[in-house]
Specification:
The complex is a heterodimer of chains A (152) and B (192). With 152 residues, chain A is mostly helical. Chain A is built from 6 helices and no strands. In chain A, helix 2 packs across helix 3. Chain B is of the alpha/beta class and 192 residues long. Chain B is built from 7 helices and 7 strands; from the N terminus they run H-H-H-E-E-E-H-E-H-E-H-E-E-H. In chain B, helix 4 links the parallel strand 3 and strand 4. The longest helix of chain B is centred in the middle third of the chain and has 16 residues. Classes of the chains: A mainly alpha (152), B alpha/beta (192). At the A-B interface, helix 3 and helix 4 of A face helix 6 of B.
């Protein structure tokens, strides 16, 4: 009797997990949005990763706005509206911000071109050099002598 | 034998481009240094609020003394909206007496100081109010909604709102007597 009464209670978490009540919010979506936002009290953590109370409250606000029918983009726009672009962990690729996105690739491209040019010049120079006799007669003579000594 | 080819390679044919461009390598570090010098000297916390000049977001708050106060009810008054917390030491402790004095000096002239306590426990907050004998309206923001609506990222932060309900100034850090008087006088002067 006692066990029978306990069963629904034990099952409750699983039921809740299996069938979210209508009008509920997908926690993955909340997390996805929170991951794009900077936790305002800890600077370099996202709202998704920060254990702070403020981040917790911000997640609550995200949840609530989604529940009210806003799209993820609208939720992000709301935070940008209040905090400015600063709240976004990665700056939007537009205007001056584009520099941040383009510059690293531009740098890599310039570096590759420079390396190619230099490598070409070096290999050309090496090829142009005549294969010089680099052993002087004295050394040659000494090698010959020492080799002869080694032989029985 | 052929003594000319021995040892030294022919003089390295340094290209003109290379000879002329050599100095550009150390020089290319300069923009980077300038960028770093600039970056390290700016305060990462000094973020301009996009809210200055915009209408203050309406909210209502349940006060610690039981009443309820809506920002909309304060239209026509200059509002000094202060976000604080009892754990915010020392800045909030420094400015509390300033705010209280300001409130007493200006409340008859159409100025309201309104405190919003964020991320705090009620017990600690009440102790703080008692410690400084704060008599201006004060209430908690348990969901953080007011804080986010005002783009608050730390305490203390103070917003000076004019009579038409527009945010005119955001002050980060403890409010001093000088800041309080200057901003309040400015807002009292304009717009009758």
């Amino acid at each position: 009797m006692k066990q029978a009464a306990l069963l629904p209670i034990l099952l409750l978490p699983f039921l809740a997990w299996a069938a979210p009540p209508p009008g509920s919010v997908n926690e993955d979506t909340v997390r996805q949005i929170a991951a794009q936002l900077r936790c305002v009290v800890c600077q370099n953590l996202s709202v998704a990763d920060s254990p702070s109370e403020m981040a917790n409250q911000m997640r609550g606000i995200i949840r609530e706005r989604l529940k009210a029918g806003e799209t993820p983009e609208q939720v992000i726009v709301y935070f940008v509206d209040k905090y400015g672009e600063w709240i976004l962990l990665s700056p939007r690729p537009q205007g001056f911000n584009l520099l941040v996105w383009v510059l690293p690739f531009a740098g890599i491209a310039v570096g590759l071109v420079a390396i190619t040019l230099m490598a070409r010049r070096w290999s050309r120079r090496a090829a142009a050099q005549p294969v010089a006799e680099t052993i002087d007669p004295a050394t040659r003579e000494r090698i010959r002598r020492e080799m002869a000594e080694l032989e029985p | 034998m052929n003594s000319q080819a021995v040892g030294a390679a022919p003089p390295a044919a340094e290209s003109r481009l290379w000879r002329r461009g050599k100095w550009a390598i150390p020089l290319s570090v300069v923009p980077l240094l300038v960028l770093l010098a600039y970056g390290f000297r700016t305060d990462p916390r000094a973020i301009p609020s996009p809210l200055v000049g915009r209408p203050a977001a309406p909210f209502s708050v349940t006060l610690f003394d039981g009443g309820r106060l809506s920002l909309l009810d304060l239209r026509g008054k200059v509002v000094v909206l202060n976000f604080w917390a009892s754990w915010c030491y020392p800045a909030c402790y420094e400015e509390a007496p300033v705010l209280e004095r300001g409130w007493r000096a200006y409340k008859e002239r159409g100025v309201v100081v309104l405190g919003v306590d964020i991320q705090d426990t009620e017990e600690a907050a009440r102790k703080f109010l008692k410690q400084f004998a704060l008599s201006f309206p004060n209430g908690p923001d348990p969901t953080g909604k007011i804080s986010v609506d005002y783009g608050v990222y730390g305490v203390p932060e103070t917003f000076f709102i004019d009579k038409t309900g527009r945010i005119r100034k955001k002050h980060v850090g403890a409010v001093t007597e000088e800041v309080f008087t200057r901003e309040v006088e400015r807002l009292l002067r304009d717009g009758g």
